[in-house]
Design brief:
8-stranded mixed β-sheet, single chain
């Protein structure tokens, strides 16, 4: 096809328009050159043509938008991101059914954010037409992101995620005030600021005229957030129109890197200007004589501000305020004096680090004054919401365990009663899962290529001061060496690494920060980086660690072929880190005058430093260029622990260089030692399970009603970290989960109690012996591995009546804090209703491990290795037969899985499927796992996964029992 055809097709894929028959307008454009016209087959060929780059880019973008659309009438009854939605799009484009499969293969559905929402008391208002009419600040923000090298797909996904949030707010022009309250859940250091910046941009385009961004409780975070909004959204013209010159010494301001709007909003009546009520150097202050700054302009005084005639020409006010009682009181006091009627002002409140706004994040053992402070902050936020009847509240958090999430009673003013949006994990993001091996690799099989732990994690196990100094030097050497590698990559054309930092986090106490900082300063002087004596040490570290990991994980980057290539850059890295007063900067709540050191300002200059701190570096604040982390601090609160994961984030051009040095035996109460790496892994797994549950039960049922509402989410969380402060879930939500059934989808029941004397293991094995006696056949089943390669496994199998399976699982014991009852209810209900008659039970046989003789059992059985979570971190096991579950889901009727011909032959409409796994679980002192029998049944655990018949619950069902009347919890969410 010609370029003319490509251009004609691409023009019919315009941004913001619904899908319509593409053939007729394309032929109209090509009438002169192609008088006979193209056929729909020709158009499809263009869509699939790899050389038609512009067409493919436009179509990918439009399909992403159309797949996610939730308010336009053209979607009919289809739900976002569903196969039915994609088929609807193809039909509207005029594509025949026989082309759908190939189109799906070339343009797969990308997914999107997960949304749990209550039904809204209004018709959809944030339509594509409304978005096209007012999009000045959103378009400007998109340009900023493109200039930061965000690709089209990433910007497109942000567009979808922010639209999901904004359309759940109330229409700012709505005659009746309504406060929508929601929560956006991201990942630690994953770009939540980019999301709420996009939400702010779209909200002010839509008509919101007062924006209040509540940051954490420390000024360094507030200032960082203010500067980013100023630089990427407010823009030079709006900043220059004010009286403050807070960026006079800012390197990016001088270099012209702040957003320059295409049209100066201060010189036109068509675009509202933004007036800053705070600056990068000053939190909110009482306006006093300048109170007119909060007086909103109106064109027609006979109409309220929220009338479109007045609203769109009116300028925007934005304040970035830290959650400090004094600052918030000043804002409240000024709002009470504003001449504009407060119930006419469409306001948006963004609460960053939202879990800090609630009193229940306080340890009751802490000082009473701190608890009063936190309570007062929550009270001020509630007062702002009480004054501004049109205020919309959106909390942002990276910790799904936050109490604003789960306690509607204590946090009634900020509970996200209208919506919860769980953001996608960004593609290039390096998060918790990237530092742990969640697929349960055997230790002997781990390499830097297949194990995140081997690649990025280094254990700290010092038992004396001498060992501790050696470990600190190991981390410090890694910091210098990675700085040299970055400089080497710059010499080979890589983008300059403006920041290169190391974080040392050992304590929350300021006095201990001083001691740790002095340790690293002394170590820096004695390490000999400016002398030849350090080279042999660094060469050994490079050869044994960084060269190996970079070859496995960073092969696309420039890497030195020998240590000799790095030598000249080691001195340069040492010089960069040594610049200024000291290589170490202490970052804590003490006054800067107490330290003789450089200021920490990522905006004004490049930072190549070692940062020592505590709370200031563990809540929201982005440590730019973070490459080496030295972490040995223990905490007793799960969300606090997760927030300390500053090593999470985006690491462009140096992901392979990131290292986490983490304490594996950190001292705690009563002389106990705690493994912080395993503690983080437990939280990562809990978070992953929680997000999976949100995904399963998001959206609406066949009646168009939400499966669950935000108030029903907390019972879906399983959190079992006994030594972390419990969330007291039985007191913090208004509904008990009583039913959970998903047809054709397996669930792993691994949450078993601690081993103890092994008697529980023995009882569990006895419970499943009736199932084992029925396994009289053997065959081969298929599964797709993590690389999308089809593989097979052999298993014994048999058909077992459903009531026999129920009797077996009824005998299992479970970990405290986890309840089998909702699953049992779904299982027994399916049996009683005749939708479940029997199970195919599979016992996989590993290819590399021979079956073992079992004491008291008449035949050998396969015993595999599965990681038991030590009680200090999380009870139960990490998985059952993860890869083999394709087979049981196929047998149970899942239309999405292919377990091979035998699985298909075993399928019946009323048949479920179950996998049995026996996992080594010897007594603590018997460290060597069984390789040959006979094995006592106390020394292995019985694990299982099962899937109900797809026909029993084709859409899934989750049900709740109300605890307190009048709370709005649903009884059944089918």
């Amino acid at each position: 096809m010609s370029d003319e055809v490509f251009r004609a097709v691409a023009r019919e894929l315009g941004d913001g328009f619904p899908p319509e028959n593409v053939l007729y307008p394309v032929n109209a454009r090509l009438r002169a050159s192609y008088p006979d016209g193209l056929t729909i087959a020709d158009v499809i060929d263009v869509f699939l043509d790899d050389s038609a780059v512009g067409v493919r880019t436009a179509l990918t973008s439009r399909l992403r938008q159309w797949d996610a659309e939730s308010v336009e009438t053209w979607v009919g009854s289809t739900t976002p991101q569903s196969p039915e939605r994609r088929a609807r799009i193809y039909d509207l484009l005029g594509l025949p059914v026989d082309a759908h499969a190939e189109m799906d293969a070339r343009f797969p559905r990308e997914g999107g954010p997960v949304v749990i929402a209550a039904q809204q008391p209004w018709d959809p208002w944030y339509t594509s037409e409304r978005r096209r009419e007012h999009d000045f600040y959103w378009r400007a923000y998109k340009r900023v992101l493109a200039d930061k090298n965000w690709d089209e797909a990433t910007i497109g996904k942000l567009d979808i995620a922010t639209t999901e949030v904004v359309h759940r707010l109330a229409d700012p022009t709505r005659p009746e005030p309504y406060q929508s309250k929601g929560l956006v859940v991201g990942y630690v250091q994953s770009g939540k600021t980019a999301n709420f910046s996009g939400v702010v941009a779209k909200a002010i385009d839509a008509g919101y005229r007062l924006v209040i961004v509540l940051t954490g409780t420390i000024e360094i975070l507030r200032s960082q957030t203010q500067r980013r909004l100023d630089m990427e959204l407010v823009g030079r013209q709006n900043i220059s129109a004010g009286v403050d010159d807070d960026y006079a010494n800012d390197e990016d301001w001088r270099d012209g890197n702040f957003l320059e709007h295409e049209i100066d909003p201060n010189k036109t009546n068509e675009i509202p200007a933004i007036r800053r009520l705070t600056t990068s150097t000053f939190d909110y202050k009482s306006l006093l004589a300048g109170l007119s700054a909060l007086h909103f302009e109106t064109v027609d005084h006979s109409l309220p501000l929220n009338d479109p005639k007045n609203l769109y020409p009116s300028n925007i006010r934005i304040a970035v305020v830290k959650k400090n009682v004094s600052s918030l009181k000043k804002l409240v006091a000024d709002l009470k004096k504003v001449p504009t009627e407060l119930d006419q002002i469409p306001a948006l409140i963004i609460d960053d680090e939202a879990d800090q706004a609630s009193v229940n994040t306080i340890d009751p053992k802490k000082m009473e004054t701190e608890q009063i402070e936190r309570t007062a902050i929550n009270g001020q936020i509630a007062e702002i919401l009480g004054l501004l009847k049109r205020a919309q509240y959106i909390g942002y958090t990276a910790t799904p365990f936050a109490n604003v999430f789960v306690d509607p009673e204590d946090s009634v003013n900020v509970f996200p009663s209208d919506f919860i949006v769980s953001l996608e994990r960004p593609g290039p993001y390096m998060g918790g899962a990237d530092f742990h091996d969640l697929d349960d690799l055997e230790d002997d099989d781990k390499t830097p290529a297949n194990s995140n732990q081997k690649a990025y994690v280094r254990d700290l196990r010092a038992e004396c001061d001498e060992d501790r100094s050696a470990e600190q030097l190991w981390a410090l050497d890694s910091f210098v060496l990675t700085g040299a590698i970055k400089l080497f990559r710059e010499s080979k054309g890589a983008k300059p690494y403006r920041h290169h930092t190391m974080l040392v986090h050992e304590s929350v106490k300021q006095a201990e920060h001083d001691a740790v900082a002095n340790d690293f300063k002394a170590l820096w002087k004695s390490a000999g980086y400016s002398q030849a004596k350090s080279l042999s040490r660094l060469e050994k570290l490079w050869a044994e660690d960084f060269a190996v990991v970079s070859a496995a994980r960073g092969s696309e980057l420039a890497n030195p072929s020998s240590f000799g290539d790095l030598e000249e850059f080691i001195g340069a890295a040492y010089d960069r880190i040594s610049e200024g007063t000291s290589p170490v900067i202490v970052v804590n709540g003490a006054a800067e005058k107490d330290y003789k050191q450089d200021s920490l300002d990522f905006q004004e200059r490049g930072v190549w430093k070692i940062l020592v701190g505590g709370t200031k570096l563990s809540r929201g604040f982005t440590v730019e260029g973070l490459t080496i982390t030295y972490y040995t601090r223990r905490t007793g609160q799960a969300d606090t622990l997760m927030q300390m994961g500053r090593w999470f984030g985006f690491r462009p051009g140096y992901r392979d260089l990131v290292r986490l040095f983490i304490g594996r035996a950190v001292g705690g109460p009563a002389g106990a030692d705690y493994d912080m790496y395993k503690a983080f892994e437990a939280i990562v797994r809990d978070e992953q399970e929680f997000r999976n549950e949100l995904t399963r039960f998001s959206g609406v049922n066949e009646k168009g009603e939400p499966w669950v509402t935000p108030r029903d989410v907390p019972p879906m969380v399983f959190q079992q970290l006994p030594w972390l402060r419990p969330t007291a879930r039985n007191k913090m939500f208004n509904a008990d989960l009583v039913y959970r059934g998903m047809g054709g989808e397996s669930f792993s029941f691994t949450m078993q109690p601690p081993r103890g004397d092994g008697s529980i293991n023995a009882r569990h094995f006895d419970a499943v012996t009736p199932l084992l006696k029925s396994l009289d056949e053997s065959g081969s089943f298929n599964f797709v591995d993590k690389d999308d390669v089809s593989r097979s496994f052999t298993a014994r199998y048999g058909i077992v009546p459903a009531h026999v399976v129920l009797e077996a699982v009824d005998q299992f014991e479970w970990a405290n804090g986890w309840d089998f009852a909702p699953h049992r209810e779904a299982l027994s209900t399916a049996i009683e209703s005749g939708l479940l008659e029997d199970f195919t039970v599979l016992l996989p046989y590993p290819k590399t491990r021979e079956p073992i003789e079992i004491k008291g059992w008449h035949e050998k059985l396969p015993i595999v290795n599965r990681k038991r979570q030590e009680r200090e971190y999380r009870t139960g096991f990490t998985g059952t037969a993860v890869r083999e579950r394709d087979a049981i889901e196929h047998i149970a009727g899942s239309p999405k899985k292919n377990g091979g011909p035998l699985a298909g032959a075993l399928h019946r409409k009323t048949r479920g499927a179950l996998i049995l796994v026996f996992a080594n679980d010897p007594a603590p002192r018997q460290l060597k796992r069984a390789q040959a029998g006979p094995v006592d049944s106390r020394d292995f655990a019985t694990l299982f996964s099962y899937a109900l018949p797809h026909a029993a619950e084709p859409l899934g069902r989750i049900g709740f029992r109300v605890k307190q009347s009048g709370t709005g919890a649903i009884v059944d969410a089918n």
